[in-house]
Design a protein that fits this description.
The complex is a heterodimer.
Chain A (H helix, E strand, L loop, with lengths): L26 E4 H11 L4 E4 L6 H7 L6 E4 L3 H15 L3 E5 L3 H5 L1 H9 L4 E7 L15 H4 L6 E4 L6 H13 L5 E7 H5 L1 E4 L19 H13 L3 E5 L2 H4 L3 H10 L4 E3 L14 E3 L7 H9 L2 E5 L5 H4 L10 E6 L13 E4 L2 H11 L6 H23 L6 H12 L4 E4 L3 H9 L8 E2 L10 H11 L7 E6 H6 L4 H6 L5 E6 L4 H10 L14 H8 L2 E5 L5 H10 L4 E6 L24
Parallel strand pairs in A: 2-3, 2-4, 4-5, 5-7, 6-7, 9-10, 9-12, 10-11, 12-13, 13-14, 15-16, 15-17, 17-18, 18-20, 19-20
Antiparallel strand pairs in A: 1-8
Helix pairs in contact in A: 1-2, 1-7, 3-5, 3-18, 9-14, 11-14, 12-15, 16-17, 16-23
Chain B lengths: L7 E10 L4 H12 L2 E9 L5 E10 L1 H12 L4 E6 L5 E12 L3 H13 L3 E5 L3 E8 L1 H12 L3 E6 L3 E4 L9
Antiparallel strand pairs in B: 1-3, 1-4, 2-3, 5-7, 5-8, 5-9, 6-7
Chain lengths: ~600, ~170
């Protein structure tokens, strides 16, 4: 059996800097240095931050630790997204930092983004001195209170002696079980107070936290039986496959029993787009054949996903003919949105390894033939998209990016139409190469996330691109300066249609064509980039697309390409919000 | 999954780490996920560093199951036990300050106290303050009897619960 599988990038570790003598030995240290020692012990090589009053004791000593590269962002939100991107693409913890008050609140959107997408993010915030807490002091804010519902956990460290253990717990929590963001709030005088530092703790004890890794053996056997007896099974997988590094196991299950694979937005790139069993994305902007396959299936194998409303549409009509097997590491996801026939709580990789042993080889020829008849519509629509004359279609640009950049590229996206077009039209050949704010839908995510990815991937021959819109780009365009200051070679593709395209699309279809507040003015993006010292191109004609993508990609520095696309282009298919996935609109 | 349509009152015991913010996290969970909480009481346990909460939550069984799982996601939560189906002692305590400005009402109130095994805590010229404890329905009935005299002030603890027999619902 040959296995067609997307594999992740082999990430080469940063060249290790030999620690000075005395490092990692027990001694008296202040909190700021203890924090640095802890970060180095965790292998942190990059962090994204912005200094401020209460963080000064930390920045005072940061220069002593060349192992940590500190990237000065232009806004803490971007620092948060950059650390998030770093974390997602490496499956390690990304670290961001902000000062008390506004520095901390600016991180909130980034923390919420990471929380919704289960990304391992550590946010370190400075807090006013302990004696000042609770007095409405200058730049004081209750950031642990604010981030309580959007973190996996958070701590306010009130004693320097607790700092090392708290950092250890924070890293452990970020990246085990279902990953997520953790915030550690550190008062200024905790940074300054000295304490005996016995070295970084080697183990953590938290009696309230023990993720289930191994699935229940009997449940897995029952699931295998159900799969073996199924006539029309489908796999619906999400981001959990990426988090668990279960690409091979997913491909093995699909190929062994010839089960079609549907990937949620966040699961895209885990399974090769071009694989004959790949049906692409389901849901609101999913392919017709993916939604039909879910609707007609008799067994739905849900792997590492959470039945988001953009995936299911109207829950009453979702997978109404299917028995659902739900595999997820978070027990609270089981039964949250849909009723499950067989729940399996555990790490996706471990569960699939056991499950695959019990799953029998099948052809499912009739079922796959039936899906192929639905797929024709998708093929025809794609062809029609490409054949529209006289305009430069966004779908065409994305398809060209796939061809020019090859299988190595990592693509981050913003939120909106371009995000869906990339999801629908990019040929993903590398696992974990698509980074997107799927859950929170954060505009402004793309550029800073690409910064994080670029710094995480040390191999400069791997292209890192962000595809963004003229709206989303303007939400964090200040980071162009960061790209220049730290020579971060991110390539930016702006799909400029002069409107907030997805919102405009909804106005057109559902809100009486009242295009209020969706036309949006932007700067001359080429001049803007050039003002920062970034090489830039504007593309208005189809014939230039491939050549400019190549030039920008080869340019030895950050680069920006503005693609001028039609204002009224829409994303299809489209399921009306709350509607059944079987009622997708294919034109308007 | 069998689905039930009827909502009912569940008694849930939660053992949590006695840390700053633990109560805040539990309460915040109710609010943001829209759970319908009727009472909450919290106090120390036999074990240092562990607090015990008793929650009365109304909802369908599968909603309560989801609630339990969400509680477990909180780091401070050590153990969640739904004792609704168990043979459980459920008690509530109330302190009531009732108007008693006439001799006959004073006598009647004292008689009710005797029947309900309520304790008189304080007596003033125009009021009596009493303490009662028992199953919630009993406390409710006692309230009902006193209401006609005029309740000036009252406080209730909310339900606390413990399993009968020698089995202990501990933190571990």
């Amino acid at each position: 059996m040959t296995l067609a599988v997307n594999t992740p990038l082999a990430l080469t570790p940063a060249p290790s800097i030999v620690p000075p003598a005395g490092r990692f030995t027990a001694r008296e240290l202040d909190g700021a240095r203890i924090l640095c020692e802890c970060l180095i012990a965790e292998g942190v090589d990059t962090m994204f931050g912005y200094p401020g009053g209460v963080l000064l004791p930390l920045y005072q000593v940061l220069g002593e630790y060349p192992e940590i590269r500190h990237i000065l962002v232009r806004h803490e939100q971007a620092g948060g997204h950059a650390a998030d991107g770093y974390g997602r693409v490496t499956n390690k913890v990304g670290v961001c930092m902000g000062t008390s008050g506004p520095g901390a609140t600016n991180l909130v959107t980034a923390i919420a983004t990471a929380h919704m997408d289960s990304a391992p993010l550590l946010a370190i915030t400075g807090q006013v001195g302990r004696a000042m807490i609770g007095r409405d002091s200058f730049q004081e804010t209750d950031i642990t209170g604010i981030t309580l519902p959007i973190t996996k956990h958070n701590w306010l460290v009130m004693d320097t002696a607790d700092l090392a253990e708290t950092i250890k717990k924070a890293f452990y929590l970020c990246q085990t079980g279902r990953p997520g963001p953790v915030l550690v709030d550190i008062p200024k005088d905790v940074f300054q107070t000295k304490t005996y530092f016995p070295g970084y703790p080697t183990e953590v004890k938290m009696r309230g936290y023990s993720p289930t890794i191994f699935g229940h053996a009997r449940q897995i056997k029952q699931a295998a039986k159900m799969i073996n007896e199924a006539a029309r099974p489908v796999i619906l997988h999400g981001h959990g496959v990426i988090v668990a590094d279960a690409y091979k196991e997913l491909a093995e299950l699909a190929e062994k029993a010839n089960i079609p694979v549907i990937s949620t937005l966040q699961g895209l790139s885990a399974f090769p787009t071009a694989h004959p069993l790949s049906l692409g994305m389901p849901g609101m902007h999913g392919s017709i054949h993916a939604n039909h396959a879910i609707n007609d299936s008799d067994v739905l194998i849900a792997i590492g996903m959470r039945f988001d409303d953009r995936v299911t549409g109207n829950l009453k009509t979702f997978a109404r003919n299917s028995k659902i097997i739900h595999i997820d590491i978070d027990p609270a996801e089981i039964g949250k949105n849909v009723a499950t026939a067989i729940p399996i709580v555990g790490d996706v990789k471990n569960v699939l390894q056991v499950l695959n042993k019990h799953v029998e080889e099948k052809t499912h020829a009739d079922w796959l033939a039936k899906i192929a008849t639905w797929r024709i519509r998708d093929t025809q629509r794609r062809a029609a998209d490409m054949e529209r004359r006289g305009i430069m279609q966004p779908q065409f640009i994305i398809q060209q990016m796939g061809e020019v950049l090859g299988g190595e590229a990592v693509i981050t996206v913003d939120v909106g139409q371009h995000q869906m077009w990339v999801a629908q039209h990019f040929n993903f050949r590398r696992a974990n190469s698509f980074i997107s704010s799927g859950g929170l839908g954060t505009m402004g995510f793309g550029l800073p996330a690409a910064m994080g990815c670029r710094l995480a991937i040390k191999d400069e021959t791997v292209p890192v691109w962000t595809v963004t819109g003229d709206g989303g780009f303007q939400m964090n365009s200040q980071e162009l300066a960061t790209l220049v200051q730290d020579d971060i070679r991110v390539k930016i593709a702006i799909f400029n249609n002069g409107v907030l395209g997805m919102i405009r699309q909804w106005q057109q279809v559902f809100h009486d064509r009242r295009f209020h507040s969706t036309p949006i003015t932007g700067p001359d993006f080429v001049k803007l980039a050039e003002a920062y010292g970034i090489r830039a191109w504007r593309v208005t004609d189809k014939s230039e697309v491939a050549q400019v993508i190549k030039e920008a990609n080869d340019w030895p520095g950050p680069a920006l390409v503005e693609f001028v696309i039609p204002e009224a282009d829409m994303v299809f298919p489209m399921v009306p919000p709350g509607g059944s996935n079987m009622d997708a609109i294919e034109e308007a | 999954m069998p689905t039930t349509l009827t909502e009912r009152l569940h008694t849930i015991i939660v053992h949590v780490e006695d840390e700053p913010g633990a109560l805040n996290r539990v309460v915040s969970l109710f609010r943001r996920r829209g759970y319908n909480i009727e009472s909450l009481s919290v106090g120390h346990t036999e074990e240092a560093s562990v607090s015990r909460m008793t929650l009365a939550v109304r909802g369908r069984d599968e909603v309560i199951e989801q609630f339990t799982k969400q509680l477990y996601k909180l780091l401070e939560v050590i153990k969640v036990t739904d004792v609704t189906e168990d043979n459980t002692l459920v008690r509530e305590m109330a302190i009531i300050k009732v108007t008693a400005d006439k001799p006959e009402s004073r006598t009647e109130i004292m008689q009710f106290c005797e029947i309900f095994k309520a304790r008189v805590l304080d007596v003033a010229v125009d009021s009596i303050t009493v303490e009662t404890s028992g199953p919630e329905e009993e406390v409710e009935r006692f309230f009902g009897l006193l209401r006609r005299y005029g309740i000036k002030e009252s406080v209730r603890t909310g339900r606390v619960a413990m399993a009968r027999g020698s089995v202990a619902v501990g933190a571990i």
